[in-house]
Write a structure and sequence with these properties.
- The structure is a homotetramer.
- By secondary structure, chain A is mainly alpha-helical.
- Chain A contains nine helices and no strands.
- The termini of chain A are far apart.
- The N terminus of chain A is likely disordered.
- At the C-D interface, helix 5, helix 8 and helix 9 of C face helix 5, helix 8 and helix 9 of D.
- The structure holds a DNA duplex (21 and 21 nucleotides).
Amino acid sequence: MGDGRTKRMPRAERERQMLDAAVEVIARHGYTAASMDEIAELAGVSKPLVYLYLNSKDDLFTACIRREAAALTEAVRAAVRPCLPADRQLWDGVQAFFAYTAEHPDGWTVLHLQARTHGPRFTAEADAMRAEMTAFVTRLIASAAQESPHSRDLPAAEIEGLAMALIGAAESLADWANTTDGITAPQAAATLMNFAWSGLGDLMSGNRWATPVGLA
Amino acid sequence: MGDGRTKRMPRAERERQMLDAAVEVIARHGYTAASMDEIAELAGVSKPLVYLYLNSKDDLFTACIRREAAALTEAVRAAVRPCLPADRQLWDGVQAFFAYTAEHPDGWTVLHLQARTHGPRFTAEADAMRAEMTAFVTRLIASAAQESPHSRDLPAAEIEGLAMALIGAAESLADWANTTDGITAPQAAATLMNFAWSGLGDLMSGNRWATPVGLA
Amino acid sequence: MGDGRTKRMPRAERERQMLDAAVEVIARHGYTAASMDEIAELAGVSKPLVYLYLNSKDDLFTACIRREAAALTEAVRAAVRPCLPADRQLWDGVQAFFAYTAEHPDGWTVLHLQARTHGPRFTAEADAMRAEMTAFVTRLIASAAQESPHSRDLPAAEIEGLAMALIGAAESLADWANTTDGITAPQAAATLMNFAWSGLGDLMSGNRWATPVGLA
Amino acid sequence: MGDGRTKRMPRAERERQMLDAAVEVIARHGYTAASMDEIAELAGVSKPLVYLYLNSKDDLFTACIRREAAALTEAVRAAVRPCLPADRQLWDGVQAFFAYTAEHPDGWTVLHLQARTHGPRFTAEADAMRAEMTAFVTRLIASAAQESPHSRDLPAAEIEGLAMALIGAAESLADWANTTDGITAPQAAATLMNFAWSGLGDLMSGNRWATPVGLA
DNA sequence: GATGAATGAGATTTCATTCAT
DNA sequence: AATGAATGAAATCTCATTCAT
């Protein structure tokens, strides 16, 4: 490359730099429009080295998705203490989620938008992480429901739907917080909890929303 | 094309065919990976004609986004009667939303995923529609809040956050319903209302979720 | 291309020009070292047009081999009259063969050398032509043998071997004539006939070469 | 390489391993398609060592051709005893030739096919060996001719042509024997001798094939 | 004697786009 | 209203080769 960057570093470190660069460039231009040239330049290496280490553009993208998904998942997992009550677990996880997405907006873009728009191979990778999140939320809802006297009102399929709704709300708020000045991660987290838990709480108490008569 | 397709049709109809083809191909492969060749072939016309009518790939995509956004917006608007109470308006709009996304999965993919992952020009188009949805929801929440005795508890910024959360939940459930066998649009709609309105209802009653002491 | 070449010609003619150029360039540098850039330039078109018409480098090479093989086969077939005696048929075919290889040295190089040195896909194409030649020669030898009183001495496997030997001798002489000043195609043809037919004639008469005693 | 291979061996042996690997890989993929990476890996060494010992891909290929040519030439030379009569010398040489090509198919492929299809530098190397073979055969034919009363009928140019034919026949039969099940080297050798010597023998006796009147 | 780290150059291939009719 | 012919530009990827140790 000829510039002043440090050279000859161990493979692991170079790989990390390449993934950093790839996440940034892919977040900026989108996966297909991102060029290996730009990624290599931002990483401070030549293209062949990127191919030598990461094998192909597809593999590079997959590696990005996996790394970012693992980091986000780990951040949430580390924040949750299973001994606490369900709502407190959710609160801790939600806070960690918003903190992470705020600190790693490019990674979040790659996970939330890019990984889901470029074919089944990558969608599958992203779905694996989403499934983990969904499982976590589903577990919480189910355990909360069991402690409530009205649990019979919530069939499994609906619980999964509620989990999807909660996760979608979280994703949307993360984007909103990342692109709106003056909205902090803790604020987004509080809004989500208000929105979600109060609603879920009502459901636990057997208070369903009253469907207008005569509608499916 | 030389095959047996009908030729010499009026411009408006040809344009519609081209947009149909573009939406389908873009939903399948993603915008950048979609090729004008494939779009032209699926539309049953030659490439120069596509350029003559739609001008460029960017313009074609923009036209797709606008058309799909207008159709979805219109479907929701048509279903809502402003004379009814807020929760009923929301219910009608939500039902129309899920019905539309279920019937036009390619259009929904283009709007929800493709339009948001290929640079600011298209994101802006999609955001315009999202803003319309947000405004609708925000108005509903605000009007409901005004009827409640605890409205002062909900500042404008939080109302916007709640709207983002609700819309994100709706988007997530639309994807879920479209990709999960056995989940119908009405079921997704009901799940969303349960999740959202009960929660919002609690908020209207002044029942916020109790933030654990000492946390941001 | 910008140069003074004629433009906008019908597809069939352009394809022929491309194959001409490809045969010439491949004969000169070898298949792998031949670049699509050079082929396109020699054909007077841009690279994308070569790909549009011939699809890939592999397919282009295959098309070259097929065209050259068909032309050579046809030249030999046209020269042979099955009503004549076997040695006369062979003489006519051999003359046509050397005349063709002398007039189309690049095509001959592609068939004889390039097609056989770049993987099974192309070898198979070349072998198809070689098999046709072998079949022709084998038929001649067999029919000559049947007219002779000593035909029992020649098992089928050996006849095939003799055909392979004759064809190898012809190929070698074709290369020799093409690369040696002062050797004309008719001279090479005569040399081959002397070498081959007299030897075959002896075999027909039952005069095998006397294998030294005690050797396999 | 990090695996369990033996290390630190004397240069000559390492070089032999590299040439072995190169011959195998080049025979398999062709010279241009053969990669230094694959050769180094098959040799069990790192690429820089290959360059240290063999200097460049071209030089490596040249070294392969020279080694294989020398080995084949030596095998034939060792089998021939100049004190014996010409046909016996030829028989011994031919046997050695087919035995060698059968035992070293990769080397034979490199010599016969690869060395002749990748530009003048390598063709020259292969031609040097071919010239040696031709000289040997030419000498035999000439010496046989001198012992015969009809020698004046064979001018030098035709003798060289006959030698080219014989060598081409031998090459073709070697390929045929190597790729056809059930054909052994001795069988191929016998077929060649029958084909060649009987024919040559006839020529020695003044029996030329009768060119049809009126043809060149 | 031997190798991990790194690259300049160039290969094939694809794409959005236009011209001439 | 419509298309066959054609291309400039740029993408991904591979390769022979070298440096520093």
